[in-house]
């Protein structure tokens, strides 16, 4: 599979793991960084409930099933919250993604066969594993999804139905349930409404401009670049890395997601995609 990088450990390495002891450091570190795809580093794959095929993540599935070579009649996205099975990358054991007895859902962070940790970050609600914890992932109960950037740095607006940076708390203006509707608005004929929403957020953008200008990066990071995906206009751009946020050069929105580059996996709170 394109983007997959994995190196199978020898059998003796797996046998040296103290199975069943989730606190053993070797379980957390064994195989760390050697498995995953271009989207996530993780030590498990998922079985897609829609087509029963195995992929490293939902992005791998969607890229494969929606490629130009695929038949339009067979193109589809994976229903991410319906994933039920994961496969350990180290021992190939297929298992339930959540505890079938509902005793302790987090126990499924570890393989039931070899005991290795399948992802340092694990969300049983989102069926999500990730070994790159530098993104400071957290699950927002109100949003119903995992986000990045650290829960302490963001607040959830119940009216908008979305999380925003604490920097925006004083200037944020609400449009009821605007954010959950936005992807559908952009696909349809209500683009002017979406544009008006962006205009309302210009004050937030100006505040972030000032915050970035007043927060110079250390010299070691001043020439670092990062690739970002804009969640508003869809553009992919290579921009100068900054710890506060990244602005899309195409539409000047800060609603971006770092995809690669920079010293870590992400600096802004965005939906884990």
Automatic annotation (TrEMBL):
This protein's GO CC annotations:
nucleus
Where is this chain's protein located in or outside the cell?
A: Nucleus
Q: Which UniProt keywords apply?
A: Metal-binding, Nucleus, Ubl conjugation pathway, Zinc, Zinc-finger
Please name the GO terms that the record assigns under molecular function: ubiquitin protein ligase activity; zinc ion binding
Span of the signal peptide: none
The principal localisation class reads: nucleus
- Name the record gives this protein: CHY-type domain-containing protein
Q: Which residue range or ranges hold the CHY-type domain?
A: 30-116
- CTCHY-type domain location, by residue? 118-182
What Gene Ontology biological process does one annotation of this record name?
A: protein ubiquitination
Q: In which pathway does it act?
A: Protein modification; protein ubiquitination
- InterPro entries, sorted: RCHY1_zinc-ribbon, Znf_CHY, Znf_CHY_sf, Znf_CTCHY, Znf_CTCHY_sf
Q: Which Pfam families match?
A: zf-CHY, zinc_ribbon_6
